[in-house]
Each structure stands twice: as C-alpha cells, then as structure tokens.
Amino acid sequence: MSRPSIVGPEVPVEPFPFELQGEVVRGFGRGSKELGIPTANLPEEAVNSICSELETGVYYGWAQVLNKEVRPMVMSLGWNPYYKNEKRSAEIHIIHNFESDFYGSELKVVVTGYIRPEKDYDSLDALVEDIRTDIEVAKNSLNRPGYEEIKHLPFFA
Ligand code: ADP
Ligand code: MG
C-alpha cells in the first residue's frame, strides 16, 4: 500500500509543538533493537502529560539526548501492557546511529505532528516496512522551515 511521503501542515498546529522530557527507562524488551529500530522509553510521569492531549498512533518530531545534537525522531504512542492498558507508553526511535545505549540519560522530545494511527500487523516484515516508511515520512516532514525552527527552541538549548 502506498503512503504519502510527507504529512502535516507547513507549520506545526495545536497541540504541536508538544514538549516531553525524562530519563530513558527500560522498555518491554520486545526486541526492537534486534529489528534495527531501538525505541527509547520515557517514564510514566512524562508520558502522563501527553495522555489528555494526544491519541495513540505514530508521531514525528525532534529528540535530544543529554543536551547534545537535536535529531529527527518517530514516536509510537500506545497502551502500556504493564498497566493493563490503562496507561500509555511512548517509544521513541531517534533517527541516528548511536555508538552505545543511553539508558538513564535525559531525553528531551518535541512532538511536531501526527503520522498515522496504530495498526495490527500480520507479519513482522510488514511492521518493519511501515516503520521504515514512518522514518522517511518523518525526515521529509521535518525538512521544512516551520519544523526546522523547532530545533532552535530554548527547550533544547
Ligand atoms: P527497550 O525494550 O529497553 O526499550 P530496545 O531494544 O527498544 O529496548 O532498545 C532501546 C534502547 O536502545 C534505548 O533505551 C537506548 O538506550 C538505545 N538506543 C540506541 N540507539 C537508539 C536510537 N537510535 N533510538 C532510540 N534508542 C536507541
Ligand atoms: Mg524500546
């Protein structure tokens, strides 16, 4: 199925840009890293702040580890199985090859837009293919002046 290569308006629109931050915690060990798509998890308190604002699904924006470079990211916002799906979880894949893991490090995220709803997949391949597409969509969508300028928010300084 073909998907648009760019999504969202020319500039972020309410409730975006949406700021999130916290120390990276261990996730569910679903093997994201083995798929080549590690996803950093934020603590419960950080995720609660988006609860009322955003529906579940896949989002794009910017992320920064330890006040270093600001990089593109895709975020999956879903229901947290640990809490019988009463709480949400935010899993953030930063579009960069890191030398090592950064559990425990401060992660700042600005969510700038929505890509698509969550989906159930028949196969792992189909899931990975969709995430690969999300990554391209995120890069293209962030490559616009209205999104580039978010990188320079005081939040990331
Ligand atoms: P977990 O189940 O603990 O979230 P993952 O397999 O999803 O395990 O790996 C996530 C961890 O990988 C992150 O917490 C982070 O320390 C590390 N990591 C390395 N590269 C990235 C990246 N590009 N994006 C997100 N996390 C990354
Ligand atoms: Mg993960």
UniProtKB/TrEMBL annotation:
<keyword id="KW-0285">Flavoprotein</keyword>
<comment type="function">
    <text>Catalyzes the phosphorylation of riboflavin (vitamin B2) to form flavin mononucleotide (FMN) coenzyme.</text>
</comment>
<comment type="similarity">
    <text>Belongs to the flavokinase family.</text>
</comment>
<protein>
    <recommendedName>
        <fullName>Riboflavin kinase</fullName>
        <ecNumber>2.7.1.26</ecNumber>
    </recommendedName>
</protein>
<keyword id="KW-0808">Transferase</keyword>
<dbReference type="GO" id="GO:0008531">
    <property type="term" value="F:riboflavin kinase activity"/>
</dbReference>
<keyword id="KW-0288">FMN</keyword>
<dbReference type="InterPro" id="IPR015865">
    <property type="entry name" value="Riboflavin_kinase_bac/euk"/>
</dbReference>
<keyword id="KW-0547">Nucleotide-binding</keyword>
<keyword id="KW-0067">ATP-binding</keyword>
<keyword id="KW-0418">Kinase</keyword>
<dbReference type="Pfam" id="PF01687">
    <property type="entry name" value="Flavokinase"/>
</dbReference>
<dbReference type="InterPro" id="IPR023468">
    <property type="entry name" value="Riboflavin_kinase"/>
</dbReference>
<dbReference type="InterPro" id="IPR023465">
    <property type="entry name" value="Riboflavin_kinase_dom_sf"/>
</dbReference>
<feature type="domain" description="Riboflavin kinase">
    <location>
        <begin position="13"/>
        <end position="143"/>
    </location>
</feature>
<comment type="pathway">
    <text>Cofactor biosynthesis; FMN biosynthesis; FMN from riboflavin (ATP route): step 1/1.</text>
</comment>
